[in-house]
């Protein structure tokens, strides 16, 4: 027996419904704020992610599905959406469009991870990017819109953590300071953190090791080292969130697994989720587009995991698909009646009715049971090429009609006469 590959899953029709609801909220909330949909390919050149996500990140170090495209070029199934969207922005010369250029996206992404609840190898993200605007209002807008989306999906127990990373220059200085501090406390750190001190010292804040956590509690914090204009930018973001009534916690230790962030950094988590509590996050990436070969262009965005939104979100009552009409051919051996039934269902759909044709060859009796199960309003039993019996399921009333009169009768309303 075949099974879905490890870390993947099937979206069955009953699961697809809530995803459809999510998408319509995204369209409403982000579309209403001037964000337009973009979709990029499922794979890109490996170099794009190495450069755009950062060579020292978990994603690039160990989570990429890379393969040879057959022509000696290394490709990677996209692990995230921001680098590809910036690539598209540059490739299509979108800097000529009125700025900012605002996108939303929804699609699947791939990371070679140890699968567990809320963590998959193929997973879905919804995200947005606002490119070409440096104003702190942009940062606050992105956060407010994501909060609105989580709220619309009924995501419970959300927490928002907020920080600012300042500029890369500030970070380089801070990084030296932090690296020095970590080396001075090497013996108290976990092996994993110690091994990565020089590669990615910020990750030490992420550690779940007790000894490391004790060291990090007294570590120098980047938030205390911000340059004046970065601190001012961050103050304004906070002020706007306060006005919008969005609650947040300042987290000087907030670290996200992507290297390209500058200034604002944020993450929503939910207490309704277990160990994988991150619902979605993002930040500002004012150097990324330049790093990918474009003009210096500021940008900010977020990505949120759809599985986690659905896990932490409210179950919405899902109405069954309406069925106006089930067409049953009384004697399917009768080829002309079968044709008439097929045509009746097709014409009913063209007239705007939700109409299905009985396809399994059930007996009339079990076809009526089936009609009950799928909640059909009417059943048309096609007797021969020209005549049909129309039964209203609620009342049980039934009448013989010309086959051509069935659709008009249903459209007229519930009275059969
Ligand atoms: P985590 O800490 O859970 O590994 P991350 O920092 O790698 O998350 P991002 O790269 O910021 O996550 O992606 C944004 C969101 O995408 C996450 O908050 C999460 O909801 C979702 N996500 C990330 N990786 C996965 C995955 N492997 N399976 C399902 N959802 C994921
Ligand atoms: Mg991760």
Describe this structure in words.
This protein has 417 residues and is of the alpha+beta class. It is 36% helix and 22% strand. The chain has 14 helices and 16 strands. The protein has helices at residues 13-32, 46-53, 58-62, 82-91, 136-152, 168-184, 191-195, 210-217, 228-243, 288-291, 306-312, 335-350, 364-373, 406-412; strands at residues 36-37, 43-45, 66-68, 74-77, 101-110, 122-131, 158-164, 249-250, 262-270, 278-284, 299-305, 323-329, 355-357, 376-382, 387-392, 398-402. The strands form 3 sheets. Strands 1-5-6-11-10-9-7-8 form an 8-stranded mixed beta sheet, sandwiched between helices. Adenosine-5'-triphosphate is lined by residues 80, 111, 113, 118-120, 123, 125, 256-257, 276, 278-281, 303-305, 307-308.
Number of helices: 14
Mean pLDDT: 94
Structural class: alpha+beta
What bound compounds does this protein have?
adenosine-5'-triphosphate, magnesium ion
Which range does the strand content fall in?
Answer: 15-25%
In terms of per-residue confidence, which ranges show pLDDT below 50 for 5 or more consecutive residues? none
Q: How would a textbook summarize the main sheet?
A: 8 strands, mixed
Based on Cα principal axes, name the global outline: elongated
Q: Alpha-carbon distance between the termini?
A: 54 Å
How many strand units? 16
